[in-house]
Amino acid sequence: MLRKIFIVIIIAFGLLEAGHWSMVWAQRHTTKVDWNAQLAKAQTGIEKNPQSAFWHNQAGVAYDALGDFDNAVKELKLAASLDSTNAMHDYALYALYKRKKMAVEERDVLLSALEKDAENPLGHFEFAALLDREGHAADALREYQVAKKLASNVKGHEYVDPRGNAYEIEFVRENVDKCINRILKLQSAKSHGS
Questions:
Q1: Residue 29 is part of a domain; what is its CATH number?
Q2: Where are the alpha helices (DSSP H) in 100-120?
Q3: Is the pLDDT of residue 7 over 50?
Q4: Of residues 60, 45, 53, the one with CA closest to residue 14
Q5: Residue 59: its pLDDT value, please?
Q6: Could you tell me which residues come within 8 angstroms of residue 137 by beta carbon, excluding any fewer than 6 positions away?
Q7: What is the total count of domains within the chain?
Q8: Share of residues in the chain with pLDDT > 70 (%)
């Protein structure tokens, strides 16, 4: 139960400010958090088990919430290296980079997350949005279509990755067609205007 609670915190805090798909998910699971106490708890966990990716992840999340970007990145990168098959660490890093508008880093961690789990509709949706922002319409369209297909294969409102991390996908379901249609209209307008 403790693990699931902190995973919610990662997504809720990490992506809430980004104003994207997780806002809907975070609102369902909002709770007041004492971030100093959470950081102390994570540091105690690290002291007991310095190789625990979980506790380094939690320290990174707490540092982020407390406004310490450098230590947040350091801890989350360490968590990712200690548990290299868990995409959740990459998504936590992605959220930090997205808020700082660090496109190169965003791309790197999203690609890393998708390499670990190519079935995550939210990962594909976020990668599509990144490609869209960069002006790569055809690639963005392809990724939006992948996200739509993957989301349609999920029963219920959460995608659960192979490691047991849950991701709310209603935002993808509600918005992916709008994104696809917008790109198709732009492409059509360009082809008719040429």
A1: 1.25.40.10
A2: 103-116
A3: no
A4: 60
A5: 96
A6: 183, 186, 187
A7: 1
A8: 84
